Amino acid sequence: MSATTSAQPRQNWTVVIFGFLALSLAFSSRAALGLIMPVWQTEFGWTSSYISSVGAAALLIMAIVAPFAGRLVDRLGSQFTLNLGMGLLGVGCAIVALMNGKLMFVIGFAGFCAIGFGIVATHVVATAVARSFSDNQGLATGIGTSGATGGQFLIVPLIAALLAFASWRWSFGALSLASLALIPCIRMSMRPDMSSNEAEGRKDDPSTMRQDFTSIVRQPAFHLLFWSFLICGFTTTGVVETHLLPFAAFCGFPPIPSATAYGLLSLVNLIGMIAAGWLTDRVNRPMLLAAIYMLRALTFILLGSIPGTSIEMLFLFAVLFGAVDYSTVPVTASFVASHVGIKTMGLAMGLISAGHALGGAMGAFAGGYVFTATQTYTLVWTGSVWLAVGAGVLALFLKAHPITKAAAS
After folding, report:
1. pLDDT (0 to 100) of residue 110
2. How far apart are CA 21 and CA 29, in angstroms?
3. Cα–Cα distance between 140 and 130 in angstroms, integer?
4. Is the pTM here over 0.70, yes or no?
5. Residues 6+ apart with CB under 8 A from 213
């Protein structure tokens, strides 16, 4: 599909590579919260509700940051934006590694890390890829944004190993060092996704963020994408990313096998995102997006039946859910590129991602609150079934416009 006005196909694979790596570290840092939650409950005496509340606060900060990060990548490009985010993430993980109480935890995770999460996000990478590719844009977006899950296949089990054989402080310390080490690599190796003349032109663009925002929210497709992606956030980032590993511990499963199942989920997620990106270029997109949400609803029915069974059921859920987890991202990004346009795609994706983060915050808080109140996750998984069905229905109302050069202007 064609998303730029360039006469020649553009193939900037360094944007895909470093976008993948940056997302791998950012999302693994987020996943570490759920993995380490039981340890903090024992060491500090914190409740799952409190830790989940801090995680929810981080997601709310992400929601606030996301549109500004999108605007930043629209104006200054992905290289600068990703480096800024990785720096904040590295500092935040270092603070968490050194924390001795609630204040440092809040500052580190819900402060520095949260802002970093909001900047090193799928909407930033998706926007960068859309501007860097005119052919096979869906596939490239699927590969680049799959770092949000695929990179965790190796990183999350390593975090679990450090947790088991050293301590949780080593886990966050390693994440901090890796995040900071990626900055010079991006600086030296990543090709800019816009020329210096284009960057200067965007800085001098007289359109304001308010004007672009008004233009975006007047489009019906934006609202369908926003609300379906908010539900997506609740049913992925909120209840699964934050509560799957605590749920596994509740079921009596050991930490390392549980983390391995989560890593497997991430690997299948990578395949699912790439496959969804490939399909985005080739099939009816509203039907594709609706099918992803409906299949996700079915996986929550399986998840609710796991207590009292074997860990093999957790691995089965990991495979099935992984296939339909973040596979919504390349499809949603494709709709934004075709229905909103490349010029304001960063801001539009930022707003939609803010909805995703808001939904995630609601899911993270609801999961912790429900478990603290009932000592079970049954209501969480049941509610997620119906929410995913609702998102699928919203997707069916989208119009399958062909992606054209005119849409990208």
Report:
1. 92
2. 13
3. 8
4. yes
5. 67, 347, 351
User: Are the C-beta atoms of 28 and 159 separated by less than 8 Å?
Assistant: yes
Give me 339's structure tokens. Answer: 């229905």
User: Quick check: helix, strand or coil at residue 6?
Assistant: coil
Among 308, 20, 8, 304, CA closest to 142: 20
Which DSSP symbol is given to 241?
Answer: I
CATH number for region 13-192+209-408: 1.20.1250.20
Helix axes 48-76, 122-132, angle to 10 degrees: 20
Distances (CA, A) of 154 to 122, 147, 151, 189, 259: 19, 11, 6, 23, 10
Separation CA 265–CA 391 (nearest Å): 21
Q: Of 48-52, 58-62, 313-317, 402-406, which range is least confident?
A: 402-406
CA distance 106 to 265: 28
Q: Give the C-alpha separation, 289 to 409, whole Å.
A: 25
User: What are the phi and psi torsion angles at 50 (to 5°)?
Assistant: -65, -50
Alpha helices, DSSP H, located in 251-344? 255-280, 285-304, 311-323, 328-339
403 in Cβ contact with 337 (< 8 Å): yes
Q: Provide the residue ranges of all domains of the chain, joining segments of one domain with +.
A: 13-192+209-408
Distances (CA, A) of 202 to 69, 72, 286, 302, 362: 15, 10, 32, 48, 35
Q: What is the pLDDT of residues 238-254, one digit of tens each?
A: 899 888 888 888 888 88
Question: Taking the CB of residue 386, how many other CB atoms lie within 10 A of it?
Answer: 11
Q: Name the residue type at position 320.
A: L
Question: Rounded to whole angstroms, how far apart are CA atoms 106 and 58?
Answer: 9
The contacts of residue 214 (CB under 8 Å, 6+ apart) are none
- Residue pair 265/153 in contact (Cβ under 8 Å)? The answer is no
Give the dihedral of Cα atoms 178, 267, 295, 62; nearest 10 deg: 0
Angle between helices 13-44 and 48-76 (to 10 degrees): 160
Phi/psi region, residue 6 (left: phi>0; alpha: psi -120 to 50; beta: rest), is beta
Gap between the Cα atoms of 232 and 292, Å rounded = 10
